[in-house]
Specification:
mainly beta, OB fold (Dihydrolipoamide Acetyltransferase, E2P), five-stranded antiparallel sheet
Length: about 150
């Protein structure tokens, strides 16, 4: 059973989209088990079990990843892209940005949009805080796990 990182990411997106916590795919002696949310250690863990083979874990879970930036300041975090797509800071070309540097944010507040496969996916804040940096230019492509914003948790 040959599976690449792109296929793993698609399966992970399906886990989130259909609110599935765990999936196991088996073919002969080979087995893939994906678990999301509470079942995953921090940073995510995905393993491909087959005689003599392993696949390294992807850079982040299918959820919007929030990772610590500086060990000595645990209140500074990154918001990363959960999709491969195009980054947009506003809902439309003539609209103002969802957030600016210095904006105070709350959990659930829309920070940006990542367009993936012609679907506009709103990326929401996971924590309350302040936007320190916007790390991607409007209209630029982003990869899964790319850093979008640097924030200071409140």
């Amino acid at each position: 059973m040959d599976i690449d990182l792109k296929q793993l990411r698609e399966i992970m997106r399906a886990l989130k989209q259909f609110d599935i916590r765990e999936i196991v795919v088996e073919k002969g002696d080979e087995k893939i088990k994906l678990v999301r949310d509470g079942g995953m250690p921090q940073g995510g863990q995905v393993s491909y079990v087959a005689p003599g083979y392993t696949i390294a874990p992807p850079p982040a879970s299918p959820e919007v990843a929030v990772a610590a930036v500086v060990a000595d300041d645990p209140n500074v975090l990154y918001v990363t892209s959960p999709f491969v797509g195009t980054f947009y800071r506003s809902p439309g070309p003539d609209s103002s940005s969802f957030v600016e540097i210095g904006s105070t944010i709350r959990p659930g507040q829309v920070l940006c949009i990542v367009e993936a496969m012609k679907l506009m996916n709103e990326i929401e804040a996971e924590v309350a805080g302040t936007i320190l940096d916007a790390l991607v230019e409007n209209g630029k492509p982003v990869e899964y796990g790319d850093k979008l914003f640097r924030i200071r948790k409140s």
